[in-house]
Amino acid sequence: MDKIRTKDEVIVLTGKDKGKRGVVTQRVDANHLVVDGINVAKKAVKPNPMTGATGGIVDKLMPIHISNVALFNAATGKADRVGIKTVDGKKVRVYKSTGEVVKV
Length: 104
What we know:
This protein is mainly β. It is 0% helix and 47% strand. It is built from no helices and ten strands. Strand 9 and strand 10 form a beta hairpin. The chain is elongated, with a radius of gyration of 17 Å.
């Protein structure tokens, strides 16, 4: 079970975007994820007349390592670690600080 999933709101712990919040849009692999508005890079794109794409400099969302983000706890307003517990025979994610179940 993944501790951080798509559509989770996370907060960045380290790097140039430290303190910013965003929503996970994609899991690239087991250790990297793409967060909306976080780790944006400028990329030069060539024009392609076959597809009608214009060239120029575009913003591209780059993956960030999962260890550099933490799940945002709306109740406390801070970043929080996540654990996994079994409740009624099902595995659920819980916040480490309060022990309450993470709402999906």
